[in-house]
Amino acid sequence: MRQFFAFFAISLAGFATQAQTSIQPDPPHHDWHAAWVTHPTAPLREPLVLHFRRTLSLAAVASSYIVRVSADNRFILYVNGHRAGDGPARGDLTHWRYQRFDLAPLLKTGENLITATVWNWGIYAPIAQFSDRTAFLLESEAKGEANISTGVGKPDKWMVEVEPGHRALGRDTVTFKDYMAAGPGEEINAASYDWKWQDSAATGGSWVPVASPMRDSIYGGVNGAHSADTTGDNPWGLVPDELPHMEYAATSAGDVVRTSIPDLRQFPGSAVSVPAGSHVHILLDRKTLTTAYPQLTVSGGKGSKIVLTYSEALYDKDLHKGDRDEVADRKALGLTDSFLPDGGSHRTFEPLWWRAWRYLDLDIQTGVEPLTLESLTAEFTAYPFEERATFKADDPDLAKIWEISWRTARDDAHETYMDTPYYEQLQYVGDTRIQALISYAVAGDDRLARQALRAFDASRIPEGITRSRYPSSLPQSIPTFSLLYVDMLHDYWMYRPDDHGFARGLVPGTRGILDWFAHYEQPDGLLREVPWWSFIDWVSGNQVIPTYDKSGESCVTTLEYLGALSDAADLERSLGDPELATRYQSRAAHVRTGIYDKCWSAARGLLADTPEETGFSQQANILGVLYDVIPKDRQQEVLHKLLTIDPGTTPDGVLSASYYFRFYLARALDHAGLADDYLDSIGPWRKLLPMHFSTWPEVPGDTRSDSHAWSAHPIYDFLTLVAGIEPASPGFATVRIAPHLGSLPSLTATYPHPQGEIEVDYRRQGSGLNATITLPGSLTGSFVFKGKSWPLHPGANQILAP
Length: 802
What we know:
By secondary structure, this protein is α+β, with helices and mostly antiparallel strands. The strands form 10 sheets. Strands 9, 10, 14, 15, 16, 17, 18, 21, 22, 23 and 24 form an 11-stranded mixed sheet that branches. Helix 3 (429-443) packs parallel to helix 5, helix 7 packs antiparallel against helix 8 and helix 7 runs parallel beside helix 9. The longest helix is centred in the last third of the chain and has 22 residues, at 578-599. Residues 1-22 have low confidence and may be disordered.
């Protein structure tokens, strides 16, 4: 019966989510008719978990019942015990998001119970989380007695209680020590937990009427909700969340691969019993990394303790990972949760925030009672991208690389893009640029990218540049990432129609960035060292590019500045100030000449990293080709020198590009007419396949993170370089299709264009190519092969290219 109830709840939640996707988003301004509420005496800026509840009596259920919900930090909303959704999506206090839900599919005639868990992890909160104090907000569009808005009516019918049985764990419980910016582990103490908080018949106890969170306000507790464009006397400037609700779907928690008690291997397929007085580990392997909510249900076992350890891979005694499939005597290390059963029946542990894992270790210590492990399930969550693109070729490695790249992209995309779903969960500009391009090309979806572009624009500091990552309560500035923000906006302008002026509205913010950099531009065109951290790339031995010479100049930093100037000129010419575009072009020409004059080493036939010519890197020369600092007639020669260098190596003193920066290598190959060499350049990804990675790592070798979406760009490259499908004009108004099959005999691909699907089918015929290309809607363009061009018209196009 319990299994049926779980399935029924999941089915209802899924139905509610589908219904919510059809709700029209709010305009930026909304006149609020609800107020923030909280617990009257709890410490609102300390780690805290609250439950809220209210009854709703209905003579009949309307076709829709719309509510707007927010909280600080976060909420999970339930209707009659069924999960309706969660939020709010992350932002800052002046852009505090709220979610819209249609609760009608979960309501019934008669009495309904609307509940929410709200939590704030205080000093343990993830770095991506802004906060002022713990509070909850719900506005209903219903009228009269059916209106359940918080802060409405005297007295307010919402009740609240502190949940003492659920707390955040300190960082000392993380068993692998590295930079960890994500949220804390959690502990549920079943003996203290209110297991009846969702029971409408349960009354009294610790439930009290809600109160204003602004009880210290000079205005006497004013707490009315307000839009971000309206003056209010509380800290949350509300904006609608324009993203769809995150996916929430059943997935495997893993299968047992190691335990000291043979009978426990039946778990989680069937319930098992852990004897009293035992200490046992149960190690489960999913085979692939996921981001999900684990749900562990137990009975009995009073006095037991279960520690759940989530790990991307297993570690040997020297803390090396190795083959990701290898178990042997390796152990899971990393973030942990804790569950303390009280002897009761059907007690379920589920953290309030999702976890990332391939391996899950259950460390169980039982007391005087045996512990029954009833079930272990999981609910996958991520941004609901749809894999619309396809790519099929006669090379099984390419199919595997595609699969792993897409899984990496999905695990690293939630209500923001994330550099890693395990360690940081932060939206960095450098990572996000690549992730957004993957989203355009594979899913045809720009909503998460628009969120990111808005966030970075909102992060700009008075000096003019953006923060390197946002939202982030811990400020970090990487000025070179501000340059990549300009490039990312240019990408959006090329790939997505700007029908509503989205890109145009962000162009003014790019001017402050380039004005800031202009202060560091020397008379010779090179940049002198800028403040903060000018990260370009990780290289072998944890070295960082760029480097600077004794006069403080860097060729590599200046190259990224050159790229941003060029992209900004395009944006201004089309969407902004044409005169400014001309000035940017003039600056770019001066900078380009300065880099070549000061940084080109005739002896090495390469660009140096600094004018002193003491160091060389793939990064400098990749950008030198991409931005035409290196003359056209020498670009292929330079790239041929670079193609033999693998990540993590330094042959002949040339620092190698990471997986991340090989995204720019792919662009440089295309720019220099060497895109047919691209498939020969993905050896670093082929070498990872025998190591059984299920997602792509951050860096070569002993990587910290096993899931970094900046390494997932081959899936984008396959579509844009190998299949050769790219925008030929802004907004993807026209297409240029220039395939580069390398040694592949054939290839088919589908690309999600804003007007529909672009389909290509290539078959080699001798030295030529038989191409069938189908364009959607009114899309036109050109097909290019071996320097010759053919026009493309809407519908089917058949080309026999010699």
